[in-house]
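Q: Predict the assembly, please.
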Amino acid sequence: MKRYIIYALMVLILGGCRYSFDLNDSGLEPKICVMAVMAEGEETGIRVCKTVPVYEVGKADAEMAQPRFTLLCNGKEVEAGEAEACEDGYRINAEAFRSGDLIELHVEAEGLEAVAASTVIPGQFPPYSQEIYEDEEGNFCVRVTYEDDPETRDYYGAVVEYRTYMTSGELNPHIHTASPLSWNNEISIDPDAYAPAVIQVKEMDYDWMFIWKDEDGENSSYEMKIHYESYGNGGRKIQDTRIRLYRLSEEMYRRLYAQYDIESNPFAGIGMSSPSFTYNNIKGGVGWFCSYSAVTSEWMLKDKEEERL
Amino acid sequence: MKLFPYISIVLTLVLSSFMHVNGKEVPTIKEHMQVIHEHYGVNFIYDSSIDMDIRSDARIDPKKMSLEECLETLFRNTGLEYEIQRKYVVITHVDKKRKPKDYTILVEEQHDTLNESIITALLEKERNSTQTGFSKIDSKVFDRGFAVMSSPDVIKALQQLPGVSSGTELLSGMYVRGGDGADNLYLLDDVPLYQVSHLLGLFSSFNTDVTESVDFYKSGFPARYGGRLSSVVDVNTRPGDFNSYHGLFSIGLLDGRLQFEGPIVKEKTSFNIGLRRSWIDVLSEPACLIASGILERKLRLKYAFWDLNANVTHRFSKENTLSLNIYGGRDAFKIRQEEDSGNTGSAEDLQEFYYNEMGMGLVWGNFLASLGWDWKFADNHELEAKAYLSNYDSNFSFEEVLKEDMMEHINTTSRNGVNRSRTLDAGLKADFAFRPSGTHHLRYGAAMQYHRYSPEYLSELKVTNKGETLKDEKERESGRKHSFELAGYAEDEMRLADWLTANLGLRYSVISAEGRAYHSLQPRAALLFRCGDYTDLKLSYSEMVQNSHLIASNYLQLPTSFWMPSTAKIAPSHSRQVSGGAYFRLPHNIRFNAEGYFKTMDNILEFRGQWGIYPPIHLWEEAMVNGKGRSWGLESEFSWADEKTSVTAAYTLSWSQRYFEEFYPEWYRDRNDNRHKLTLTATRRFGKRFEMYASWNFNSGGWMTGESHAIPSDQVGERPEMFYEVPNNIKLPCYHRLDLGFNFRKTTRRGNESIWNLSIYNTYCNMNPIVAYMGEMYEFTKENMTGLTFVGEAFGIVPVIPSFSYTLKF
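A: Predicted assembly structure:
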């Protein structure tokens, strides 16, 4: 299908006339940018910097005056010292917050509109059981079954990690992230052909994270079809697998889902799609202010050995 | 001289004897008109200053004479002339200076001042409508007016009105007062039509050759209309001529048209058929041959559309009429390419043989059929009943054959599939009109509709060779839904005083789908204050509910989108609108209208994106996001006309916003938030043979979403970190284009009218953008050491398009 879209677009592009237009008419202003992905129980750095309208890149001054900020936890101000200047703006060092904490941030800087943002640190991933198996087509699947609270709106994430053994039986200490089974964007009978939202989360150094909200999982279980890559000296011995399970704040889920949208939407960059791929929860500015909590399972062993290639 | 009194007496006696025929007085012109009206069913329209009580000895016998002969006889030497306009005869003074220019022959029935349907006032366009935001376009406008590709068009005519945005070039929709394009109710002879465009919106589905009039409402909706949020486009086709055969054919650059009408049984039964067919495919064939030569692969690209309107009307009596209307329209787009490497014979070439054939087809269209019965069961009470069927379907098909001779084995893969979606409506409706007195015109009625939505029928066949799997056939029909909709309404047009008319109404509708029923009461109110002869003030409030939703995964307006009903998860959309305006008729035929509005919309839907060209059938409810919209603005229209020239200027100042909490936590501008819109049109007649038309359209650019903010990097050539601030943050270039049209009229030796039309679309070739994106370029300067700069890049694909057509009316 994508191929046809590309053909159609090429016909447009080749048959048409391309020209530049001025972006200045959009009336954009420099903004304060806040970027924070706070983990429950861990100290977090909140990055604050200045952004400029894209058409002023290379022209406008991107230097930011020392920002003044207020960080509140459940309505009480948190002592966090001054924002420290760093290579890419300023950094606010926040203490470790606990599940259920409402964190609010207000930032001001000279010459820029003041900004505000908030998030609630999510609770732990609910009790769960995990299972690894092969489906009918021989794909590796990991299924997590958990107890979702029907009274609350919850957002989840999962990263499947594995490590391999050499044919000699020696453990390769490197831990890999399992990528999703590549799905087919062509017309397909498979009802799950479009299913999983899987994104690469750069801020968390994970290659692939499966994300979903409680409405997506059936009977409080979520199934991930994954693709193991071959490692080892010419072959592999099937590996240990474990799962890192996340409870995401709503802001975090939306931010990641927006990232998924932009990566999988062929019409997003050309103004032909709904703006679902934008996410910004910094009032008056740009960026994101979000949080998560995570648990890591024990290693699971999959009892399968493949032939040497 | 003495004889004079006697002569006078004799003459008086002779004259008086002439004035009594068989003991009766010589009838007046009005009485003759009544006879003609009763026989032919035509209504007369004339200025009340014309004295029709003059006695006329014209010998009129409608049983033996045609309508034209009757009128010719009646008005000969009276100083009056007539013009037949379908069911109406407009009478004016021969003295053209006294001939008013801006009249309409199609009037709201409530303003008829005589029960016998003789209209005694020359009515002005839209003036007597109580509704705000109402425009009436009669077929004459299409004769003279805008004709893209030399083919007059209903939607293009409506897009020129204030408050209507046309969206992106080529992918033209109709965005009315902040609407999203899928919230316009298109009615063809009272039957809903789902797909209204051919060739990506360049042509509309309405054939103007058979169109009698178009009623367009963007606010103040009468209670008899419902089902969409933003506008009503009510297109009425006309029945055929009951007395004589005539028609037209037209050959244009891209399409041909044929229309023919006449009696089946004279004065009883008539037919009217209109047919259009494009021949773009004929032109695209040689272009593909050339392209195939250049690309060294066979390339075939075909596009064609056709539509047919047919009407058969039978008059049982003056009070009873039965009519059958059929509309069928189809668009077909096919692309196929073949790549055949042949045998290279080269031992070094691993790939000795390669053959790839790929094809894709997209076919879509509507079919409508309706049977209507008009019954006037009392002088002041009539019924219009209708049973109808409306079907819209689209088929997407693909096939691929791949043969490879890879070293020692031949691998053959063959895949094909089809995906079809369909929306079917079947309905019954009954509309009553009752005039209990001269001051009330009551309308009431009920409608029931069954909707069947079949968004996906999918079949796929896969045959591979070396990879084994010889045949893998799959078939699935999913997402089928049914809904049942009932609606009832009542409205009363009340003349409360000479200066005050009100139209108050209420509409109730209920939709039932998947065991869930949504009820709604939609109040409608419109007031007309007549402040003297020159000024009217109008005010209206209306609520509308939309129970069907267009599910589209992108803004390309492709026929791959489908309609679905409200469900347990997706509630009906709802709009409220207040509108008010002042309407002035100034001296020297100058008119000026100014109308303001404020509109809110709830439960409107946006797609989450990411699914490419086809929305996900099995996940469509999850893929939709619920939000709100609001819009407000001021629309003004200025017009002036004399006998030969007319000039119109329409300006709109408007705001349109959206609130989708999942996308952004505050209100943001809509993508069609075009702040200013200006349309200038002028027509000029040079004698009887030549007329010219010009139209300049301007609107502020629309909006797209792009990464608007950046943290610049110090590193040369390094891309900065990019952020989105708010949806729809990048302003596209302003839209403007000039269209010109020329008509050369001639009467052939046989007395038929022929018209050569030359039209030029986008005369000064402004490449209005169809798509745009953020472009990056490197330009190292002292100020910009990193070199990277961002610019907007736009693609326009519609250049100047001259076209011509030849039309012969016979």
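Residues 9-23, 96-123 of chain B have pLDDT under 50 and may be disordered. The longest helix of chain B spans residues 3-18.
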